[in-house]
Write a structure and sequence with these properties.
By secondary structure, this protein is an alpha/beta fold. The protein has 3 domains: 12-131, Thrombin, subunit H (Beta Barrel); 135-277, no CATH class; 280-483, Vaccinia Virus protein VP39 (Rossmann fold, 3-Layer(aba) Sandwich), CATH 3.40.50.150. 44% of the residues lie in helices and 23% in strands. It is built from 17 helices and 15 strands. It has helices at 24-27, 111-131, 140-166, 174-206, 211-224, 226-229, 233-240, 249-257, 265-277, 279-301, 318-323, 342-358, 372-376, 378-382, 402-414, 435-441, 451-456; strands at residues 22-23, 33-37, 40-47, 51-56, 69-76, 79-94, 97-106, 306-312, 332-339, 363-369, 388-393, 416-428, 448-449, 466-471, 477-483. Strands 8, 9, 10, 11, 12, 13, 14 and 15 form an 8-stranded mixed β-sheet that branches. A hairpin with a 2-residue loop joins strand 2 and strand 3 (40-47). Helix 4 crosses helix 9 (265-277). It is globular.
Length: 486
């Protein structure tokens, strides 16, 4: 406990007390609050008892209104929750816009009351939306396909439940027999699952950009089919996203390890169906590992003594751990692993360091913890590093539109050493695409590209650079391979 004389006051400008400010979207995350100023609506940035700030486009000029009393209204959706007056006291840059701060001159903001109103409105909205039946927008042939999938899964559940019940718990081969039955079910079910997936993909693609139909179809899928798969750890984690983002390193580890996770035979079957569907994760990793091995061997043959590799969005970095298990490296290898997830970096470091120690100075691994926004500003991020012989980002462009993905390619290419190689991975557009499964079943949005679109990402690269698109053995993803001239 502190004594009064130990309590320090504010220093500098902080000696002038300001009411505590709260980020509006963090405070009210179900319904985005907006403010009306002079009959124009803007996104609220933060609030306090005595003031608010909002974000305004650069083409709005507020200089003439500085220190003038202006009427304002605060809204949650169409519901007005506050009306008063205020004076514009400060205008400052905010990203590519302006942040405008207003001091209230009439009325005050009762933060707790506003939060209660937000929660009440959000609850009403959730009930209204939740009970709205838009299933009439879902195509009949799609409903039929989903019914087939549910029928298949429930049939398998019934078989596996009976097997578990009938097998003697004292049987020494019980677990082995259950595993054999699960794999037999998975072999038969996988062909049918792929057939249903192709049908659903074709139906959803035929709807084009009809947003109402897309939303209704997606909701129908998540309510009817997704729950049948949630017993499987792989589907469950991909859908619930416990770390706050899709495709986390644990999802990738499921695909690498292929263990039968689950407490019941059906749970293990569902998990296995998920890892079989995500087989491309393992094949993509193997392609990357082989690329590291081939390029490092060629570099050693040319007389190089060091080979520098950087992985952006590295996840568990299984390809690095596997590569370093080789008995002897052709030259000194330096790996830089970059990710936004501290736990992923910890896993990657723990799995690679024992091999680094075994190789006695021939390999090094360092980890950089960076945000997703820093991923996009790769030019600045890579200025902390030397030029690299190989840079790869095999699971990042899936989340970027054309403009950002092209910039990523340009920035990474500029950080290659002469003769260096850049690998960019992306999900592949085809009739066998996993787009329906990840988007509709798992609520996991990924950008899929064809070969032409992959090559288009390198449109601004030096014309003398080599370009190649390599498809993995599953046909679900491909790698854009760019070689920099020496």
């Amino acid at each position: 406990m502190k004594h009064y004389e130990e309590l320090t006051g504010g220093e500098g400008r902080r000696v002038f007390y300001r009411a505590e400010r709260f980020n509006a979207k963090t405070l009210m995350n179900s319904i985005s609050p907006v403010i009306d100023v002079d009959d124009k609506s803007f996104d609220l940035f933060d609030i306090s008892m005595s003031g608010i700030s909002f974000v305004s486009p650069q083409n709005f000029s507020w200089l003439e209104d500085m220190n003038k009393d202006v009427p304002l209204k605060l809204k949650l959706g169409s519901t007005e929750i506050f009306a008063g007056n205020g004076k514009i006291r400060r205008i400052e840059p905010h990203e590519s816009q302006h942040k405008v701060a207003i001091e209230l001159t009439k009325g005050f903001l009762d933060i707790q009351k506003i939060l209660d109103q937000h929660d009440d409105l959000a609850l009403q909205q959730a009930v209204t939306v939740g009970l709205t039946d838009e299933s009439h927008l879902v195509p009949a042939e799609y409903k039929e396909a989903i019914s087939d999938a549910v029928y298949m899964l429930r049939s398998i559940r019934k078989v596996l439940d009976k097997v578990e019940k009938d097998l003697n718990r004292d049987d020494s081969r019980r677990d082995e027999r259950i595993k054999d039955i699960i794999l037999a079910c998975e072999t038969k079910a996988l062909a049918r699952w792929k057939e249903i997936s192709r049908k659903c993909l074709a139906i959803t693609e035929s709807r084009g950009n009809d947003e109402a139909t897309i939303e209704a179809t997606k909701r129908y899928t998540e309510l009817v089919l997704t729950p049948e798969l949630m017993a499987g750890a792989s589907w469950n984690r991909a859908y619930t996203k416990p770390l706050g983002y899709p495709g986390d390193y644990q999802v990738m580890n499921f695909a690498y390890n292929l263990n039968l996770e689950g407490d019941t035979a059906y749970a293990k079957f569902c998990h296995r169906l998920g890892t079989s569907t995500g087989e491309f994760i393992a094949t993509r990793m193997t392609m990357t590992k082989q690329t590291i091995a081939n390029l490092s061997t060629k570099a050693a043959a040319k007389g190089k003594t060091r080979f520098k590799v950087a992985s952006l969005g590295c996840g568990p970095a299984q390809e690095v751990a596997n590569y370093l298990k080789t008995s002897k490296l052709p030259l000194s290898m330096e790996f830089t692993l970059i990710d936004q997830d501290h736990d992923a970096l910890s896993y990657a470091y723990n799995s690679t360091y024992p091999q680094v120690a075994r190789l006695d100075g021939m390999a090094s691994v360092k980890c950089l913890h960076a945000t997703f926004l820093e991923f996009l500003a790769t030019g600045k991020l890579f200025r902390k590093l030397e030029k690299q012989d190989l840079i790869y980002a095999v699971g990042l462009a899936d989340y970027l539109g054309k403009k950002r993905a092209t910039k990523l390619v340009n920035d990474l290419y500029s950080n290659l050493s002469p003769g260096g190689t850049l690998l960019i991975g992306c999900m592949r557009t085809s009739e066998e695409s996993l787009e329906w499964q990840v988007e509709y079943v798992c609520d996991w949005t990924l950008v899929h590209r064809n070969e032409e679109e992959m090559l288009e990402l390198a449109r601004d690269i030096d014309a003398e650079a080599t370009r190649e698109v390599a498809v993995d053995t599953t046909g679900h993803c491909h790698l854009l391979i760019i070689g920099k001239p020496e």
